[in-house]
Amino acid sequence: MASHRVTTGSRPQNGLMTSRVVAGVLAATGAVGAAVCVGAALTASVPQVLLPVALAVVWWLAGLVALRARPEHASARLLTAVGTCHLAAFAIASVLGVTSGDSAAWLPWAAAVAANVIYWSGFAALAILLAVFPDERVRGRTSWGMVTVGVLAVVVVPVVAAVTSRQTDLALHFHRTALPAPAPLPWGSGPVDVSGVLPLLVLVGLAILVVRVRGATGERRQQLLWPLTIAAVLALMLVATPVGTHALGRGWAVVFVPVVGVLPIALLAGVRRYRLLQVELYAARTLAYGVVLALVLTIYTAAAAAAGHHGALPAVLVAAAAAVTGHPLRVWLEARVDRFVSGGRIRGHALVRHLAESLEGSDPRALATRTADTIATGMDVAWIDIRCQPDLQVHAGSARTGDARLVVPLTAAGEEIGAIECGPRRGGWSDEDIRLLTVLARHAALALRGADLASALARRVDELAASRERLVRAEDRARRQLERDLHDGIQQQLVVLLARLELLRSTLDAETTEGQIAAQSHAQAQRSLADLRNLVRGIHPPLLSDRGLVAAIEAQADQLPIPVSVDVDPRLTDARFPPAVETAAYYVVCEATTNVIKHSGAGRARVVVRPLAADGLQVAVTDDGSGFAVTATGSGLAGLRDRVEAIGGRLEISSTVGVGTTVVARFPISEMANVANA
Amino acid sequence: MSQMPDTPLRVVLADDHYLVREGTRQLLELDGQVLVVASVEDAEQLMTAVDEHHPDVVITDIRMPPTHTLEGVAAAHRLREKRSDLGIVVLSNHADPDYALELFKDGMTGFAYLLKDRVGDRSQLLAAVRAVAAGDSVIDPVVVEGLVHRRARQETSPLSRLTDRERDVLEGMAAGRTNAAIAAHLHLSVSAVEKNVNSIFSKLGLTDEPTMHRRVGAVLTYLAHPPA
């Protein structure tokens, strides 16, 4: 922030001294003025002056604080001057209110004219403040011209008005007294109400600001939006005052006083730190709503005038209807004002912020499209093409015309991943625009790269999960096929062999050598058949396919040399699950119980099969054995985990040395159904 | 032991494996006690053959086309509905008791569940054929062993209170052996077997049954459906 402050190092020291003297005078005058006003008010002659005095004090105090913070700033002095002038004018008016008589006298008349000039000077100071805010100098010939006109008006208009009238109107708002002229001109008129000129001064300041905003670019433009907003509000309040007073009477003060009272504080904030975030937004909204409000008030006034003095209700209704139907107008106005405020473009950090907000998600095409749209609208470029690896191309704006006027590379991590091609643009490309576009391109490139990597990663993860699932399913299929082949092939042939050996044995005398050989061969074939049956069972238990998980688990428990209880939720006794789940759950029980027998030395084990809340299945094997360090699990349990997770399940192994081991597998059945059907 | 019939028992064989059918047939017909009247390769043909030949006994493989799962058991149940006097022997490669219990789920009269290994044990196979022809039940000793083991595994089961010897005797009873056969098999005296049998019945809360086939039924029912 410091770099944006106006530095004073180059200013001569005596300039600063002068500034301090001026500041002292302003502070002292304001204090005296305020004291006189309060004193006069307390004598009860003019209590109605208290409210404007309070307002003036706020301006004056805000100026003093600004002076403390930025003694070198003309803005601070001018802010103080606004309050001081008004306090001084109010003080004179208060004294006049106490002493004035009917007789024409030079002194009160002259004092009244002076009070008018001082009061108007306060508005002139405000106009100049708006014209020079936030740093010292008035820029441009037009601006100087306007300031000159304003200052002249301050002195000339009240004096001319006073000289040419038989009476002089002490034209302070809220405090109006007509003083007879001591030496009226023969052709002099009655009191001339020139108070309507006062808002003009603020309008002059506003006009200067509008001119400055139009001529300014970049940061300076942003700085100027702040006083522009304040000036717009102030102008609106002053313009609205006649209507507001007409409509609300004294109640208008409820609207006027807080708004006008807040303005110096806002200006003070602007002086202390004039680059505020989102100032464009405030400026645009203020201007848009200001214009709409002014319009509604105008309609109200017109309606009130047409309906006569008693038609307040119809006037209110007409104005309300205008306000409601004014929505499209407001939208149109906002667009125009946005265009004016931002010079037709979203500027600098606003554009970066806008882009950053739109750079969410992981779809590279959507990101590129949003980036192109943001740049095309935000920077007012006719068209934008974004090319990006591997074969992403998006377009925004009007149809492409000819070659790109500007090409900004998209670079992420030192690698050029594409480019932003820009079409023609009103006003061409300044260095600042190109810098901005480069910053935007860097953001966009990082986001695009990230999205690209993320989607590639997601694809890869999906592929891996799918391939792991396929592997597990293929293994299951192969095991089942092998079991069937053994069952219907070798097993059957062994049965045939056995039958033949039995036939042979039956026809031979058991006492002969041949009979003995036949008997031995028969016994051998029988053992082979039993061995084969156990082997087939290990490869894939037919019971699992034929009778389901629970039957297979029961049968497995039967095989174990220690008591293994199998607790099955009654709802699951005859339940069938997708084959992949049944197989995985079965192997969990087999592997876990085998571990129990081999390693734990447990006296008993327990298998629990129960449903999980949301379409799930849980199989748990618990033993009371010696336990083991889970980190040192053998490859059997690791393979088990792979198998369970491959079909979307989770395997948890918890073991406490001396207490026992629990292996829990959880399977989501709904997901599993897809796997099974796939 | 059953009385040897004057006329051979008429048997229909069902197995999808031709050589198994042939081997079985040769063994059964070796001494003329059994006449294989038809030999078929699936359950449908079995139905037709039974209608056609009115056999005394059907010997069927548990696994046949089309699904190669429990076709034999299903066919057995269908045949039993048709002919309550038909003896049915189911040959199976599964030692798991679940398959036998599936066969016996609606009653075990005239049913035998044997491992396919028994094709290589002519005397056991013939004994089973004769038993089911007489309305008795036979269950393969290996399957009985599994069944007994399963019941004993349940801590609350009275079977867990049996001694090892009593358990061996129980298996013999369930397999349809006489006390004498059990005694021979276990190298015990017949009186020792009788003592064990009494002890078993008292521990299981069963009463000794007068006939062999009711004794087997009682024991198997106990094993298949233990009291809660």
Structure write-up:
The complex is a heterodimer of chains A (678) and B (228). Chain A has 678 residues and is α+β, with helices and mostly antiparallel strands. Chain A has 21 helices and 11 strands. In chain A, the strands form 3 sheets. Chain A has a 5-stranded mixed beta sheet. Chain A has a 4-stranded antiparallel beta sheet with strand order 4-3-6-5. In chain A, a hairpin with a 3-residue loop joins strand 8 and strand 9. In chain A, helix 1 runs antiparallel to helix 2, helix 6 (197-215) runs antiparallel to helix 7 (218-248) and helix 12 runs antiparallel to helix 13 (364-378). The relative contact order of chain A is 0.04. Chain B has 10 helices and 6 strands; from the N terminus they run βαβαβαβαβαβααααα. Chain B has helices at 18-29, 43-53, 71-82, 97-103, 122-133, 141-153, 164-174, 179-186, 190-204, 212-224; strands spanning 9-14, 34-40, 57-61, 87-92, 111-115, 138-139. Chain B has a 6-stranded parallel beta sheet, with helices on both faces. In chain B, helix 2 (43-53) packs parallel to helix 3. The two termini of chain B are 34 Å apart. At the A-B interface, helix 14, helix 15, helix 16, helix 17 and helix 18 of A face helix 1, helix 4 and helix 6 of B.
